Amino acid sequence: MDTFDQDLCSGPAEIFKALGHPVRFWIAQQLTEEEHCVHEFVERTDLDFSTISQHLNALKQAGIVSGEKRGKQVFYRLDCVCVRDFIRCVTKNMKEGCPRLEITALDSLDRVQ
Questions:
Q1: Is residue 109 part of a domain?
Q2: What are the helix (H) ranges across 31-62?
Q3: Stated pTM of the model
Q4: Which H/E stretch holds residue 76?
Q5: How far, in Å, CA of 26 to CA of 19, rounded?
Q6: Radius of gyration (Cα) for the chain, nearest Å?
Q7: What residues make up the domain containing 48?
């Protein structure tokens, strides 16, 4: 087992924290396939423009998404490939039932040697 290193764990923890809100997780999930602008998220939720923008900003601050201004609209895209893969994995496993990782005594012995 590694020694706890707060500096190494803080960055990943911020990503999980940002994804920990259902709306932000849903936004990131929508961005796994293609980019979207704020009004598209507003149209598909009961949230207003300001609230969606705040959620997008939290994702942006965590380094998960970035935005590109085109005319009057800002289009957001997922920047972190590992987040895309994580979201796909979690979503798939929630639909199919998440397999449990079984560690046998033999597996533990192999790691020690």
A1: no
A2: 38-43, 49-61
A3: 0.80
A4: strand 73-78
A5: 9
A6: 18
A7: 6-91
Q: What is the rounded CA–CA span in Å between residue 55 and residue 60?
A: 9
Q: Which two tokens stand for residue 105?
A: 């005594």
Residues whose CB falls within 8 Å of the CB of residue 64, separated by 6 or more in sequence, listed in order? 15, 18, 19, 28, 78, 79, 80, 83
Please indicate, yes or no, if residue 83 is contained in any of the structural domains: yes
Cβ(84)–Cβ(32) under 8 Å? Answer: yes
35: domain CATH number is 1.10.10.10
Question: What average pLDDT does the segment 16-36 reach?
Answer: 95
Q: What average pLDDT is seen over the chain?
A: 87
74: Cβ contacts below 8 Å, ≥ 6 apart = 37, 38, 67, 68
Three-state DSSP state, 98: coil
Domain count for the chain: 1
**108, part of any domain:** no
Q: Average pLDDT in the 27-49 region?
A: 95
Residue 97 phi/psi, 5-degree rounding, is 95, 120
DSSP assigned state of 5: -
Is residue 71, in this structure, part of any structural domain at all? yes
Are 31 and 78 a contacting pair, CB within 8 Å? yes
